[in-house]
């Protein structure tokens, strides 16, 4: 990782303004068209979640602001951001699942499938204090228009949080609600919109 020189940083004014807010996170929800990828995953009987999670991590790693974290008085940028998600268990509780971002989709699919299965079998709620990742939750039972996260207010809480909801159909197209919560000292609505736009393009590519 590299340390950002805050004094010479183009976001110095915005960073100093928002960094000491009691709740510096901003939240945005958008319905993302996912028709091509959703139908492809269903036809191939593969996990739609793993398909779109791979693309979400691809976009996150392409946008530098999503790789920024606040560590104490420093701002650092990680070279690669990996994933963690909540995994629903058979007893209707959940566990945390950790997986690495791998550019090759087939390799990503295999390792993420194995990670999910391991998390489902683990009786302990395993939480790892890492910063080079993105926090992800999935609510496949309902679509939503907004969401609020529980949060421990401390300096190290600067990890963006994503939530994916239930796919719904409108006028022969499939959409999925996606929520992004991000630390406003590190990024703005422009960067969150950039994520949504790039993510939607990848989910709609004709290769799917």
From TrEMBL:
State the InterPro entries in the record. CAT-like_dom_sf (IPR023213), Cmp_AcTrfase (IPR001707)
GO MF annotation terms: chloramphenicol O-acetyltransferase activity
- Which UniProt keywords are listed? Transferase
Q: Which domain of life is it from?
A: Bacteria
Q: Which Pfam families match?
A: CAT
Q: Where is the signal peptide?
A: none
Active site: residue positions = 184 (proton acceptor)
Which PANTHER family does this one have? SLR0299 PROTEIN
Q: What is this protein called?
A: Chloramphenicol acetyltransferase
């Amino acid at each position: 990782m590299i340390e950002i020189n805050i004094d010479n940083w183009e976001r110095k004014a915005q960073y100093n303004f928002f960094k000491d807010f009691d709740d510096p996170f901003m939240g945005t929800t958008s319905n993302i068209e996912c028709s091509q990828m959703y139908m492809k995953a269903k036809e191939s009987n593969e996990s739609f979640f793993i398909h779109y999670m791979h693309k979400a991590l691809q976009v996150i790693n392409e946008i530098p602001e999503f790789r920024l974290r606040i560590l104490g008085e420093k701002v650092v940028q990680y070279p690669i951001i990996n994933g963690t998600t909540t995994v629903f268990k058979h007893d209707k509780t959940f566990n945390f699942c950790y997986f690495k971002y791998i550019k090759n989709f087939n390799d990503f699919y295999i390792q993420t499938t194995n990670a999910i299965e391991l998390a489902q079998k683990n009786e302990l709620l395993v939480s790892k204090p890492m910063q080079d990742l993105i926090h992800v939750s999935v609510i496949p039972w309902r679509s939503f228009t907004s969401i609020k996260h529980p949060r421990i207010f401390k300096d190290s809480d600067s990890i963006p949080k994503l939530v994916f909801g239930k796919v719904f159909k409108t006028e022969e197209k499939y959409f999925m609600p996606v929520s992004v919560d991000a630390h406003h000292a590190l990024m703005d609505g422009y960067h969150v919109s950039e994520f949504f736009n790039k993510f939607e393009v990848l989910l709609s590519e004709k290769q799917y």
